[in-house]
Design goal:
The protein is an all-alpha fold. 66% of the residues lie in helices and 1% in strands. It has 4 domains: 51 residues; 113 residues, no CATH class; 116 residues, no CATH class; 123 residues, no CATH class. It is elongated and about 90 Å long.
Length: 462
């Protein structure tokens, strides 16, 4: 790779928010574990690490967006377009209304002074220290937020902020701004990536969390969110709660401050469940297997590591996730054989015209569905879809095998329109064979189809 290309890549990576950089680094680390694009992944990770570790003293551009600079510590915790959030998360849509309130009522004088400091040229005589100016306005904002959210404060002032979700987010925003240094320190202490969150890693994280400012009920979920972002399997965050409780009994875990880890893990599984349901409804199967693996591993991990009571809140939530997955997928899995039959069914030749066609896009979508059913077998038991998955997969194998053999014979027709349409069906069948039986069988069927000549009679078995 040429140096200009490397420089452009570094510029692009450096402009990403810290959360995006961390997620990108984690995805490339996972790609290395799977053996995919190892050279590229190692190179990108090296560039990301050099960017993350680079000194940032007085490197803030003075003409940057004031709101973005002040709210920068919130970046690792922001979520997009989410009606419900878990502890340790903040809606990005809440930032603008809160900034407007701070500018209008909260700390208008401090905001104006901050904007004036950013507007000064960096080489101007007596130019202020930008990092100090940012920290000063963050502290002022946190104090104003603490005043408006304190018990006994005028509640009607909160109503002027905007939607209820903004009111819900303003307290945590103030808290994160107040303890920014402690969260930054935690981030530097944590390992870059923890593929296995084993006992040594649990002890190390517990030591890193041992800061009084991080133990406040409002702040602890955000510290735990930073830990979750470093985990190969985020559900494993519950091991912190189990470690503190000294037991896997959910009642004892819930009685500790770190019982919140279970709530956070279950909420994340619920989010993935919603994403899975949405992808299925939209017919987007690219990420479904990843969603299934995440849900399978998470549900199994929680059920294995924690002793849930079936009538407890956590137990009911976990059962609801399994039921939601099962109900959402059963009908989809059950409908795949019918979709295949519609494409490969050999109706009467008289119904075939020169305009008869098979949409290649529909063939690929159906192949993706077949692969989806095949992959579901790996996760079927834990997700309560075992019966429908095995039944549908067996039905697909039997039907596609028989239909492919019959389509080979149908190519002997001398009718050009029929033969053209049967070839389209044959290509679809070969594509499905590749998914169900592998490339060798698909190639065998392709060669068999190529050898057939119009009008040729099938050789006698005798």
């Amino acid at each position: 790779m040429s140096q200009p290309t490397i420089d452009r890549l570094r510029d692009y990576l450096g402009q990403l928010p810290p959360k995006a950089q961390a997620l990108l680094m984690r995805e490339f680390e996972r790609a290395i574990e799977r053996g995919e694009d190892v050279a590229v992944a190692n190179f990108v990770i090296e560039q990301l690490r050099s960017i993350v570790r680079a000194p940032s003293t007085d490197a803030t551009p003075r003409n940057a967006d004031p709101m973005r600079l002040m709210f920068q510590p919130l970046e690792p915790f922001l979520v997009e377009n989410s009606p419900t959030i878990r502890p340790g998360q903040i809606r990005r849509s809440s930032l603008a209304p809160i900034w407007m309130w701070l500018t209008r009522e909260g700390i208008p004088d401090q905001i104006r002074a901050f904007e004036a400091a950013l507007a000064q040229p960096p080489d101007a005589p007596g130019a202020p220290d930008i990092e100090r100016a940012i920290r000063s306005v963050q502290i002022a904002a946190s104090e104003a937020i603490a005043a408006i959210t304190a018990p006994g404060a005028e509640r009607q002032k909160l109503g002027r902020l905007g939607a209820p979700s903004v009111v819900e987010d303003i307290g945590p925003i103030g808290g994160v701004l107040r303890v920014r240094e402690a969260l930054d320190t935690l981030g530097t202490r944590l390992q870059g990536y923890m593929r296995e969150f084993a006992e040594p890693q649990v002890r190390s994280v517990m030591g890193s969390l041992n800061m009084p400012s991080l133990q406040a009920p409002q702040i602890l979920p955000f510290a735990l969110s930073l830990v979750m972002q470093r985990l190969g399997s985020p559900w494993q965050i519950v091991r912190l709660g189990i470690s503190v409780a000294g037991s896997d009994d959910e009642v004892r875990v819930a009685g500790t401050p770190l019982g919140i880890t279970v709530t956070m893990a279950i909420h994340d599984l619920l989010r993935v469940t919603n994403e899975l349901r949405g992808d299925i409804k939209r017919g987007q199967y690219k990420n479904i297997i990843n969603h299934l693996k995440t849900l399978h591993d998470g549900v199994r991990g929680l059920r294995t590591e924690l002793d849930f009571r079936t009538d407890s809140n956590w137990g009911r939530q976990l059962a609801a996730i399994r039921a939601d997955i099962s109900n959402g997928m059963k009908s989809e899995i059950d409908g795949v054989p019918g979709r295949v039959r519609r494409l490969l069914r050999q109706g009467p030749d008289k119904d075939v015209t020169a305009a008869s066609r098979i949409d290649p896009t529909e063939v690929e979508e159906t192949a993706a569905l077949i692969e989806f059913v095949a992959m579901c077998r790996n996760y079927a038991s834990e997700l309560a879809i075992n019966e429908v998955t095995l039944r549908s997969f067996t039905e697909l194998q039997q039907y596609v095998e028989t239909a492919t053999e019959n389509l080979v014979e149908s190519l002997r027709t001398t009718n050009p329109a029929v033969r053209t349409f049967r070839k389209m069906q044959m290509q679809a069948a070969i594509r499905f064979c590749d998914v169900l039986f592998g490339p060798d069988y698909a190639m065998l069927m392709s060669k068999a189809a190529d050898m057939v000549r119009p009008g040729e009679r099938k050789a006698s078995a005798g």
